[in-house]
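Database export, one record per block. Field names are fixed; values are copied verbatim from the stored entry.
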Amino acid sequence: MKHLKPANAKPDKLVLIDAAARKVEKTYTIPGGSPGPATVTPSPDGKIGYVLDNRWESISGIDLDSGEEVFRAELSSSDERVKAIIGMDISPDGKQLAVFESPVKLGLAEYEVQPTRISFYDTSNGQKIRSIPAPRQITILMYSKDGSKLYGVGRAVHVIDPADGTIIKEHKTQGWDRANYYPPYILSFWSQWEQAGIYSTPYYVARGDMSLDDPTAYWTGMLTLNLETGAFNLVDVENTDVFYFSTVISPTEPHIAFGVYSNLAKLDMKAGKSLGRGTIDHSYYDINISSDGKEVYLGGTMSDISVYDTNTLK
């Protein structure tokens, strides 16, 4: 099943897509998956899809050949309710799941908010191995290629030691100090870096050295993080006249990005400019790309996936 790509669907489905054949290959029901599964993280060997479900309080591991649940981890307990919305990744050796958790202690008449954390679950038995402290508001969680670091994207890009939670480094985003810029707006919500090994997300910012009445003062840029080298980059690519909900990097041309929301865009980060836009049939929130960089896949809104050519944007 490694050539098939998993996608989630409400209320409790895991769908396997054959992108080459342009069809849904299989649809599995996730036990206790309602009302809507969230992040899907495939194992490194492509055999299991780990899904955040059960109102974001459980992780199900679904065998992608049989559809059987072969793993389950319960995040909450009798005295603590734990939510994990989207921040989850699997270690490169496939042995541990790292999950960003937001816990509250359950009292008789109140909830007591607890510090946020990253917990690690053994993929062989679903048991929690350990938890480490983590900054609040992390949405995306990613392992470095060698497994020595965790990257947490929130109000900054935090570089975290997965052994003890030490913050090794922080790349500034919301609190950046770029000259002549206001703070940016960044919505980091989608996990699709597996083809290029480079995480990307768009940012929107106004120039501080220009009048805010001037439309050319507003810029769309790209934030990228290379999961192999750790290289972090910010680059403006076009004046803002549309928004992109998510972006993805080409695995064959890592300076090329594609973004989607109300249209499909191709962006050259090296040249700092747009290479064109394609018309789409309706808005899409999510985008991914083929391993050869020839096709992008749009989804995340209605119950369909659209396939576009990366050269013609048709």
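Remark 1: The mean pLDDT is 95.
Remark 2: The chain has two domains: 75-172, 176-314.
End of record.
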